[in-house]
TrEMBL record:
<dbReference type="Pfam" id="PF00067">
    <property type="entry name" value="p450"/>
</dbReference>
<dbReference type="InterPro" id="IPR001128">
    <property type="entry name" value="Cyt_P450"/>
</dbReference>
<dbReference type="GO" id="GO:0050056">
    <property type="term" value="F:linalool 8-monooxygenase activity"/>
</dbReference>
<dbReference type="GO" id="GO:0005506">
    <property type="term" value="F:iron ion binding"/>
</dbReference>
<keyword id="KW-0560">Oxidoreductase</keyword>
<comment type="similarity">
    <text>Belongs to the cytochrome P450 family.</text>
</comment>
<dbReference type="InterPro" id="IPR036396">
    <property type="entry name" value="Cyt_P450_sf"/>
</dbReference>
<dbReference type="InterPro" id="IPR002397">
    <property type="entry name" value="Cyt_P450_B"/>
</dbReference>
<keyword id="KW-0479">Metal-binding</keyword>
<keyword id="KW-0349">Heme</keyword>
<dbReference type="InterPro" id="IPR017972">
    <property type="entry name" value="Cyt_P450_CS"/>
</dbReference>
<keyword id="KW-0503">Monooxygenase</keyword>
<protein>
    <submittedName>
        <fullName>Linalool 8-monooxygenase</fullName>
        <ecNumber>1.14.14.84</ecNumber>
    </submittedName>
</protein>
<keyword id="KW-0408">Iron</keyword>
<dbReference type="GO" id="GO:0020037">
    <property type="term" value="F:heme binding"/>
</dbReference>
Length: 408
């Protein structure tokens, strides 16, 4: 929420206040109104209005921490830990600026094409239908455990060609790693994240080494064979891209699927609209991405000063763009920004998947999984109901940890 010590002092954004992770949107509204360009006492800046967030996404500001000269408090040990302790050693495409970003994205994109994603629709439909069959038979189920997590996890695992025997441990490790995206992790958690990072890099390195000698019809083999202007991925670069695709390929999609179905269940009129008009589903996915954003925060490091709302954000500063706040900014979306409207005409302008050169590589896959899931769920169950919701307690990669529903 926003707090202030006295009427004369600036507001301070505090996402650790009670109730924030269950429903952060009232606090985001206060942030947009009170401090749209907000310098936090912990040493970073926050942007929360749509215009500013959208502009930053399309800007040339950096994602590379070497430009960081004004160190946020929680990054105080990053200069001493060494690059080997950074998540994926800082080699993943999301941590690179051009020209290296251009090279890496070119290599990864060749193995992650729209045609390859579209070809997955029958497999995704089969997985969704099987999950819905189990839920129908039981009459009530945890939608996260039965569908929202297994679907994207299985799809990205099969795409990459990761053997089933590795899934349990990798699932645990990725669950730890994604917590690196949360602000202000305590020292104990930071140590767990570093240990998980080292272990998962080792597992992926062994897998990619095996794939070099035993290529198959999978994404890792395609990455091994991919070239961009005569260049190929180096060993550590390959490991980093595989790890990034694996984590990004399921963690945020879990929130999209579970949060989306929860939103539909809480708005039965909108669920009925989707059931009666399944052709609306593509726009419905965009509106759900806007209404309950799967990943709430994005970071950039300024390479030059950035003016915003009478403030001057200096070069070398860590800037947090609050995607979820921007996606409900009434200055852009109108007075009904807090309402779910599956037929909202400009829903596709949400900022959930980024923009510019850092637009999410897996956006097409996440959208496909959501389209198939929402359409089939709406058609299958005429009167589903929410029995229990438990949120995952995260600030950034936020979504339901448990969504118990009844379908009878």
């Amino acid at each position: 929420m926003m707090t202030r010590e006295s009427s004369e002092e600036a507001f301070v954004f505090n996402p650790f206040t009670d109730g924030f992770t269950n429903d952060p949107y009232p606090y985001y509204a206060e942030l947009r109104d009170a401090a749209p360009a907000h310098e936090h006492p912990l040493g970073f800046w926050i942007l929360s209005r749509y215009e500013d967030v959208s502009k930053l996404q399309r800007s040339g500001h950096s994602v590379d921490e070497r430009y960081l000269t004004r160190l946020p408090r929680w990054k105080s040990d990053s200069r001493t830990l060494g690059k080997e302790n950074r998540l994926m050693r800082g080699l993943a495409v999301l941590d690179q600026d051009p020209p290296n970003h251009t090279r890496l994205r070119g290599l990864v994109s060749k193995a992650f094409t729209r045609r390859a994603v579209d070809a997955l629709e029958p497999r995704i439909a089969t997985l969704v239908d099987r999950a819905l069959d189990r839920i129908a038979e039981a009459g009530r189920a945890d939608l996260v455990a039965e569908l929202a997590f297994p679907l994207p996890f299985t799809v990205i695992s099969e795409m990459l060609g990761i053997p089933v025997v590795e899934h349990t441990r990798i699932r645990a490790l990725t669950g730890t790693l994604v917590r690196a995206l949360e602000p202000l992790a305590d020292p104990g958690l930071q140590a767990e994240i570093r240990a998980a990072n080292h272990e998962l890099m080792g597992i992926v390195r062994e897998l990619t080494d095996w794939k070099r000698d035993n290529p198959g019809d999978d994404l890792i083999s395609a990455l091994l064979a991919a070239e961009h202007d005569g260049d190929v991925l180096g060993g550590d670069e390959l490991v980093a891209q595989v790890m990034f695709l694996y984590i990004a390929g399921h963690e945020s999609t879990v929130n999209l699927l579970a949060g989306g179905i929860l939103a539909l269940l809480r708005h039965p009129g909108q669920l009925r609209l989707l059931r009666e008009d399944p052709g609306l589903v593509a726009n419905a996915v965009e509106e759900i991405l806007r209404y309950d954003t799967p990943v709430h925060l994005m970071r950039r490091i300024t390479i030059e000063s950035l003016p915003a709302h009478g403030e001057e954000i200096p070069a070398g500063a860590w800037v947090v763009a609050c995607l979820a706040a921007a996606n409900r900014d009434p200055r852009f979306w109108g007075a009904d920004a807090d309402e779910l409207r599956l037929d909202r005409p400009n829903a596709h302008q949400n900022v959930s998947f980024g923009a510019g050169i850092h637009h999410c590589l897996g956006a097409a896959l996440a959208r496909l999984e959501a389209r198939v899931t929402f359409t089939r769920f709406a058609r299958r169950f005429p009167s589903p109901a929410v029995e229990e919701v438990r949120w995952n307690g995260r600030i950034n990669v936020r979504g339901p940890a448990k969504l118990l529903i009844s379908v009878r």
